[in-house]
Amino acid sequence: MAQSLAQTSTTCQLTTHPIPSLPAESPPDYVLVRFLASPVNRVDFMVLNNQYPLKPKYTSPITNTPIPGFDGIALVESSTSPLFSPGDLTLPRDLGLGTWRTHAILPASSLLKLPPSVSTISPIDASLIRSGALIAHLLLTNPSTPLKAGDHIIISAGTSTVSQFLIQLAKHRGIKPILVIRDRPNPEPVKAELLALGAEAVLTESEVEAGLLLPKQPIILALDSVFGKTGELLAASLAPGGKFVLVGLLAGPKASMQLTTQHLFNRQLSFLPFRGSEHLKRMGDEQTESLIGEIARMFVDGTLKRPRVKVVDWTTAGEGEVEKALKEAVELAKGEAGHVKTVWKLT
């Protein structure tokens, strides 16, 4: 039997229904996939709370309610598309595919294929590529913010999946990332963990505000996933001529930052948006799939290591356990510092 976690208002319910199949009269270019793993991302929380402009595209066949999930890894079981064959591993190309389910029939154009050479990748690792390691790579190679070995950059949400992938990739290029983490009673273990991954320095928000421990070398780029007060701290840390890139809105969709003439005229800072989906569109299919293959190989050969995650296995979870895990993940993301991402192991 297939399963899906369907959204009803701001709650979700695990439902069971027959495994779908591609009918003989199916139109060309459709694929039946079996999802292997799907992470619970910040954007999913925003979708569940009606705070995100993009909504799930699919509904549960039983409850007729939206199926959440923007990210994951799936195995092709059958296909009417010449681009996909049974056994291919795929990632979402489009947003809103409803990846919190075990099976789906999807347009071939909505999927990206991993090369056969990385077929041994762990499903948990692979599920973190699209919205984690891939985004980190794009941020470091963005033509609008060129970087070279020795450059210092500052990054908010330092314990996030993207940040932890970013510091590993930066280390290989000789770029020196400074991570900013939320204040917490005992930050030292978290700092030690991030420094071991390759961070140049790890500061709490209070330490940044106090001007402590910042390097003598100029910080030329700020990558901010929080906005609000945290964004203001990062902007204040930039050297004249530096660039501020807005990556996310963890402070909420209504958060704001105060900019003054000091930012724009005296210090000549640039403020830029970043949307990973738009970058991928500009890259095109061939280049995007090549880059995803390159990142997947880094997981296989051990160059990239995933952050700590909480894996919830749908195949062994008891009644209500999945829904309980989702509620706990939402509450942790709202409150405690050092949020650990939840990943659904689906099949």
Automatic annotation (TrEMBL):
Segments forming domain Enoyl reductase (ER): 9-344
Major subcellular site: mitochondrion
Keywords on record: Fatty acid biosynthesis, Fatty acid metabolism, Lipid biosynthesis, Lipid metabolism, Mitochondrion, NADP, Oxidoreductase, Transit peptide
Annotated compartments: Mitochondrion
InterPro entries (alphabetical): ER, GroES-like_sf, Mito_Enoyl-ACP_Reductase, NAD(P)-bd_dom_sf
Keyword Chaperone on entry: no
Polar residues: bias regions: 1-18
TM regions (residue ranges): none
Molecular function (Gene Ontology), one example: trans-2-enoyl-CoA reductase (NADPH) activity
Keyword match Disulfide bond: no
Reaction(s) catalysed by this chain's protein: a 2,3-saturated acyl-[ACP] + NADP(+) = a (2E)-enoyl-[ACP] + NADPH + H(+)
Region listing for Disordered, in residue ranges: 1-20
Family of the protein in this entry: Belongs to the zinc-containing alcohol dehydrogenase family. Quinone oxidoreductase subfamily.
Listed PANTHER family: ENOYL-[ACYL-CARRIER-PROTEIN] REDUCTASE, MITOCHONDRIAL
Protein name per UniProt: enoyl-[acyl-carrier-protein] reductase
Species: Podospora pseudopauciseta
